[in-house]
Specification:
The protein is mainly α. The chain is 63% helix and 0% strand. The two termini are 44 Å apart.
Length: 164
C-alpha cells in the first residue's frame, strides 16, 4: 500500500480532485472493477469472490487499496445519486396522480383516501379534531388545511425541503 507521502495516495484522497468514472478505475484490473460494481450493488465478499473467480481474501485485500477504495466510493455515490433521481421522478408522478385524484375524481372513497394521505403526511389537524385544541407551542409542526389543493402544494413544498 502506498504511504501517505506517496503522490498517488495524495491525489486519490484529495477531495478537490474531480474524478470521472474513467479516472476512478485507472490502475484497476477488470476483476477489480467487477468486484467494485458487485460490492456497490450490495453483494457480500463471498458472492463477489465466487462471481469473479478469486479468493475471498483477495477481495478483502483489494478493499485496502487506495485506488479500490476511491473507485468503490465513487461507484456507491453514483448508484445513490441515480436512485435519488429516480425517486424524485417517481415522487413528482405520485404528486401529479394524487393531485388528479383530489381534484378530478368523482369517486368519494378515492378522494377521501387521497385527502387522508396528504393530511397524514403533513401531520395536519383538522378544526374540531382532538389535536386541534393543542397550542402551537405543544404542536409546532401541526398545520390546519381545508383546501386539498393547498394540502397538495404544502406536501410538495415539504418534500422539496427533504420531507420536513
Amino acid at each position: 500500500m502506498p504511504s501517505p507521502r506517496d503522490d498517488s495516495w495524495n491525489r486519490l484522497n484529495d477531495p478537490a480532485t474531480g474524478f470521472d468514472e474513467q479516472d476512478s478505475y485507472v490502475g484497476l484490473s477488470p476483476q477489480q472493477i467487477a468486484a467494485i460494481r458487485l460490492l456497490a450493488a450490495g453483494k457480500h465478499y463471498s458472492e463477489v469472490a465466487a462471481t469473479i473467480d478469486v479468493a475471498r481474501r483477495t477481495v478483502n485485500n483489494w478493499r485496502k487499496l487506495p485506488a479500490f477504495i476511491v473507485a468503490l466510493n465513487n461507484e456507491m455515490l453514483s448508484l445513490r445519486e441515480a436512485a435519488q433521481a429516480r425517486l424524485l421522478s417517481l415522487a413528482n408522478r405520485a404528486f401529479d396522480a394524487l393531485e388528479r385524484t383530489l381534484m378530478e375524481t368523482e369517486n368519494d372513497n378515492a378522494r377521501i383516501a387521497a385527502v387522508r394521505l396528504v393530511l397524514e403526511r403533513l401531520d395536519v389537524t383538522m378544526p374540531g379534531g382532538a389535536a386541534a385544541d393543542e397550542s402551537v407551542e405543544q404542536a409546532p409542526t401541526k398545520i390546519v388545511l381545508l383546501d386539498p389543493k393547498k394540502a397538495s402544494e404544502e406536501l410538495r413544498r415539504r418534500m422539496a425541503e427533504g420531507g420536513k
